[in-house]
Every structure is written in C-alpha cells, then in structure tokens.
C-alpha cells in the first residue's frame, strides 16, 4: 500500500465541515456567583473586541521575522514530482521525531503531496535563490517546476531531495490540523542528513532573500 495509510491523516482536511479530531473547544472556568455579583444584561450585541489588523499590515510586521527557506516535495502515484517553496518549516519534537510546516488551503501542490502520504524537505542554500523562485510559482499555472532541476529520491519515501541543498529531511505525514486559511502539517522523520558545508542558508526577510554572515 506504500504510504496510503499515512495519507489518511493528510486528507482529513478535505472534510471541510468537520473539526480536526485533535481539537477540543476550550471550556469556560466555572465559579459560584454571589448574590451581589449577578450578571447584568448589556444593551445591543456583544462587543466583538478590537478589529483585526489588515493583511497588508500583518505581512509588513511579521516580515521582520527572518526565516530560512525550504522546498517541500513528493512523488505522486503516477511518479511525477511535485513541490512548493516553504518558509514555515520547523523542528517540532525529538521524541517522537516530528517536524512541521504550514501550507495555504489554496495551494494546488498540497493535495497531491497529501495523497502521496510522504514528503521531503530540502533546506535551500544561499546560492539557490533562483531555485526558490521557481518553486514559489503556483502549480495552477501549469508550469513544470522540476524542469531542469536535479534531484534524487530520498531513501525512505522516494520523495525528491534537491541537489545542492544544505540538508534534507525525509518524512511521512503524521497529522494535519487546521489553522485559519492555512493547514499545519506534522511530519514524522524517517531519515535526514546534511549535504553541504561550503555555503550558508538562504534567508527570507521583508520580502527578499539574503544570506547569513559572521
């Protein structure tokens, strides 16, 4: 069955009307109400709280947090490679070995990766900015992101490891959770290694690429 069993957790997000199994709504704290603190009924609808900042402000402020850049990739059932650029990748747990990344619900690449049940994360080097831009293009455009890109299959899952990356992390999909307009994907590490020591990481800061220097 390959990784089909692992894919079950990945495609739970397709059940748009169902809450994630791991989610439990918070329960309000209960306490005895004294006679002198009976609640009063306010006129009008409840206060919705402060207005949420617009998306442009969110991008501007949160863009001041510098991140590394990766490519998340997989091989589909018909043997075709698929992937997208991702800056939300991170280490999550040592026991069990888990990593995570976030992906937009609107992503055209993610459903194909989800059905594969596994993925490989390639940590991009400072000299791979052009490669990152290639994988940042939406798959909905029909562009072949892997055209002319060298890669080898990861040992455990067969997902693409991009040649020239600093490191790779081979994973099976462990769980998928909802997070607003994104999905939070947890991967269980099946294998990993560093592959280059002659370059620093590709960094993303305030909408542009940079590199680390000491």
Shape descriptor reads globular
Find the CATH topology of the domain at 68-209: Pnp Oxidase, Chain A
**Estimated radius of gyration:** 21 Å
List segments where confidence is low: pLDDT < 50 over at least 5 consecutive residues: 13-41
Query: Considering the protein shown, what is the CATH homologous superfamily of the domain at 68-209?
Result: Electron Transport, Fmn-binding Protein, Chain A
- The count of helical stretches stands at 4
Tell me what the structure shows.
This protein has a domain at 68-209: Pnp Oxidase, Chain A. The chain is 14% helix and 33% strand. It contains 4 helices and 12 strands; from the N terminus they run H-H-E-E-E-E-E-H-E-H-E-E-E-E-E-E. It has helices at residues 4-10, 55-62, 110-116, 129-136, and strands at residues 67-68, 70-75, 81-86, 90-93, 98-104, 118-123, 151-153, 160-162, 167-179, 182-194, 202-205, 208-211. Strand 2 (70-75) and strand 3 form a beta hairpin. The protein is globular.
């Amino acid at each position: 069955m390959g990784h089909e069993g692992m894919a079950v957790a990945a495609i739970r997000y397709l059940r748009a009307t169902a809450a994630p199994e791991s989610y439990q709504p918070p329960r309000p704290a209960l306490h005895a109400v004294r006679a002198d603190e009976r609640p009063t009924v306010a006129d009008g609808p409840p206060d919705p709280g402060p207005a949420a900042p617009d998306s442009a402000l969110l991008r501007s402020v949160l863009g001041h947090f510098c991140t590394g850049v990766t490519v998340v990739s997989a091989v589909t059932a018909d043997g075709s490679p698929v992937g997208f650029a991702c800056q939300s990748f991170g280490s999550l747990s040592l026991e069990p070995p888990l990593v995570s990344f976030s992906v937009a619900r609107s992503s055209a690449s993610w459903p194909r990766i989800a059905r594969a049940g596994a993925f490989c994360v390639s940590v991009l080097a400072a000299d791979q900015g052009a490669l990152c831009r290639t994988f940042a293009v939406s798959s909905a455009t029909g562009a072949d992101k892997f055209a002319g890109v060298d890669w080898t299959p990861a040992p455990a899952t067969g997902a693409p490891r991009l040649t020239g990356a600093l490191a790779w992390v081979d994973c099976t999909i462990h769980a998928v959770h909802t997070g607003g307009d994104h999905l939070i994907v947890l991967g269980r590490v099946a294998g990993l290694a560093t592959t280059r020591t002659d370059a620093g990481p590709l960094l993303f800061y305030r909408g542009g690429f940079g590199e680390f220097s000491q």
